[in-house]
Each structure stands twice: as C-alpha cells, then as structure tokens.
UniProtKB/TrEMBL annotation:
Pfam families cross-referenced by the UniProt entry: Hexapep_GlmU, NTP_transferase
Record organism: Kitasatospora kazusensis
Family: Belongs to the bacterial/plant glucose-1-phosphate adenylyltransferase family.
Residue span(s) of domain Nucleotidyl transferase: 21-282
Name of the protein: Sugar phosphate nucleotidyltransferase
Keyword Coiled coil recorded: no
Classification via InterPro entries: ADP-Glc_PPase (IPR011831), GlmU/GlgC-like_hexapep (IPR056818), NTP_transferase_dom (IPR005835), Nucleotide-diphossugar_trans (IPR029044), Trimer_LpxA-like_sf (IPR011004)
The UniProt record lists the keyword Cell membrane: no
SUPFAM superfamilies: Nucleotide-diphospho-sugar transferases, Trimeric LpxA-like enzymes
Span of domain Glucose-1-phosphate adenylyltransferase/Bifunctional protein GlmU-like C-terminal hexapeptide: 317-361
Superkingdom classification of source: Bacteria
Length: 388
C-alpha cells in the first residue's frame, strides 16, 4: 500500500544511517515568500511545502532516524513536522535539543514557542551544535539533507555504493548545462567516480557536474575533519559543509566519491528559481508526476489540467483564463481574471479583470492591478532594482 506521501511503508530501512535535515536558513533571497514563514515551509507545486520533499525521501528510503537542525521560526516548522511526518513507524523524527520537551508535552502546545538557541555561522556549525544527537551510538553513517531542495529519491542505492566503496563521503552529483554550473557547487570527478575537487559557485566552470547538496558521511571521518576545522578558531574557516568540510576531506586525500543522480532535482534558493522550477513541472512528460508529490497542504489534491497546461488545486470559474500556471489550494481566481505562466499561492486572490503574467501572487494577497514579471518580489529580496 502506498501512503499519501507516495511512500511504501513496508520497505526495509537503512541500518546504521542517521539523517541530518538542514533547515535553519532564513531564506532572505526568497524575499516576501519568507516574510511570514520560514523557508522550509514555503508552499510548493500546489501540494506541499519545500521541506516535505526531503521528509518524503527519508521515509521512502526507510531512514531509521532523522534529526532536525533548525533555527529560524522553529516552532512553526516543528508543528508542521509533528502534524504530517511524526506517524511513520519506519522513520523516527528527532528534534535535537527540543526532543525531550516535545515528547514530554505530547507535541508543541498551542501558543507555545520553543526557546531560542545560539546563532550558527553555517551548515557545519549546525552539525557541531547537534553533535550529541547526530553522533550518538547506533549509527555509522550520516545522511545530510537540505530542506529547500525539490526531488524524489531513494537513498538506498547511494548508501550501498557508499559502503561498497569504503568511501569517507559520497556526494550526489548531477550533470547540467555548463553555463549554469556557476550557480552551484561544481564537482570534478575522475573515471572511478572519485571527487578530485569541489568548488562552490565557480566563476569559470571546468566541469558540468554539480553537487546536489545531499551526501553520506562516514561518521568517524566527519568527526575528525570537523575537529580539525574547529581547531582553527572561529575566524579560521567559513563553517560550511560545501566550502570547508568537503574541500578539506579532498585536500587530506580522503576518499570522497560521487554518486550520479538521475531525474529531476532543483535547489530553490531564489525567487526566480522558485517561479521557474514550478513552471517546469508543467512540462510533459512531467519531471515529477502530480500523483507522486508529497501531500501536506489542506484542500484537494492538485491535478494537471491539459487544456490549461496548469497544475490546479482550486476551481477555475467560467470567464477566467488560466494558462501554464500553478494554482495552490485555497487561492481564488475571480471570473474575468487572467493568469499566465504564474504561481498563485494559498489564500491569494486575482481579482476580476486583472492579469498576472510571469509572476507570483503571494499568500493572502489580493491582486487588484495587473502584474507582469517578478520585479516586485526580486526588489524585496535583493533591494531596489538597478536603473536601466
């Protein structure tokens, strides 16, 4: 039987693997999309929230335990995970320093917020802050995930390859057009899939392979490298997995391997990526089938409407025009409105007679004037747009 998350609950888990879900970023490059919610909870594909893809992958793969590493608006994120993901017997969620409080109280009571925790400089700091939970007895390998990546994946073949090679670390890699490599971490790999270099956002790419930002570490090797980096002092490194931990492993001659990732994968780091990647889901054949998407948003399941070439989670009234767009559950398109190549979020309304083209209508917003493009959202995310 397949659950509402597209998960096969009877699959065997990944013995000896513990997960680390990096979900502490503020999402400032997403501008108004994260003005009211933390980045992992931004709605996506009329079906779920960004974080749900990583959770679905963990459950689908049978990951025994997943530790949440969060900071910004933790209470909201914890409530979401407790509501939608804490009922899978094959995968246990662990809430780090909040675990005992949450389990003792049976969850997070209404109106209650979690206590603040010290700020972290980067993703490696998040691992160090949660070391007592991540490196506790019972696990030999650590799977690192990000809460803002969109993909459907079974980690078991990657884990099998990781262990068969005896690698200290195995990273996911995907081949893309070289002109886009400078937006990601670039990997240089030899014929044996050994990673020879990892460069974050290179100005002049020499490879068309990018790091998909999920990886498996042998825990003993990871702890040694983190200890060495920490010994350099606060200002002696950038406290980041991609910029420090992995390059240091490679520099030390440790065995870092690449695992090719097939199929759809997207890093949703900016407003334009958020818009473009959702519209990409409308292509046929679909990169991710609507029926395969995690389902956590309230309301009806999204459906692809061929005549509109749109992913729709709400009713479209007579007299409205909707083409190549994503309409989230709870949004309202009034008769006479026109929505073209746009994303309309839950609670948003496009008023009668208004046209939105190549844009985003924010959650709870009532759009009463025509809108074209992402200029408004990009200006909020990056400051005033430069003059032409």
């Amino acid at each position: 039987m397949v659950s509402r998350h597209g998960v096969h609950p009877d699959r065997v888990g990944l013995d000896g693997v513990r997960g680390a879900l990096l979900a502490g970023g503020r999402g400032e490059r997403l501008g108004p999309l994260t003005s009211r919610v933390c980045k992992p909870l931004v709605p996506y594909a009329a079906s779920c929230r960004l974080v749900d893809f990583s959770l679905a992958n963990a459950v689908r793969s049978g990951l025994p335990e997943l530790v949440l590493l969060s900071l910004h608006r933790e209470s909201d994120l914890v409530r979401h995970l407790l509501t939608h993901w804490d009922d899978h017997p094959g995968t246990r969620l662990h809430f780090g320093p909040h675990e005992e409080l949450l389990r003792a109280d049976g969850g997070l009571r209404p109106g209650r917020t979690l206590p603040d925790r010290p700020a972290e400089r980067g993703t490696a700091d998040a691992l160090l802050a949660a070391a007592e939970y991540l490196f506790a007895p019972g696990a030999t390998d650590l799977l690192v995930q990000h809460a803002d990546h969109v993909y459907l994946f079974d980690y078991r073949p990657m884990t099998a390859a990781h262990r068969a090679s005896g690698a200290d670390c195995t990273i996911g890699v995907q081949r893309i057009e070289r002109r886009y490599v400078k937006l990601f971490g670039m990997a240089e790999v030899d014929a044996d899939l050994r990673v020879r270099a990892l460069v974050e956002k290179p100005s002049d790419p020499t490879s068309d392979l990018v790091f998909t930002a999920f990886c498996l570490f042998r825990i003993d090797a990871l702890r040694q490298v983190l200890a060495g980096l920490s010994a350099r002092g606060v200002d002696g490194w950038r406290h980041d997995i991609s910029r420090d931990v992995l390059p240091e492993m490679i520099a030390q001659g440790r065995d870092v391997r690449a695992f090719p990732v097939e199929g759809y994968w997207a890093d949703i780091g900016t407003v334009d990526r958020y818009h473009a990647e959702q519209l990409r889901l409308l292509e046929q054949p679909h990169p991710l089938a609507p029926s395969a998407l995690p389902r956590t948003l309230p309301g009806p399941s999204p459906r692809f409407v061929p005549e509109r070439r749109s992913l729709v989670g709400t009713d479209v009234p007579d007299g409205a025009v909707v083409e190549r767009s994503v309409l989230h559950p709870g949004c309202r398109i009034e008769p006479g409105a026109t929505v073209l190549r746009s994303v309309v979020l839950p609670g948003a309304t496009v008023a009668a007679g208004v046209t939105v083209r190549d844009g985003i209508v924010l959650a709870g917003e009532r759009l009463t004037a025509d809108r074209t493009g992402l200029a408004e959202q990009l200006r909020t995310a990056h400051g005033p747009a430069p003059r032409p």
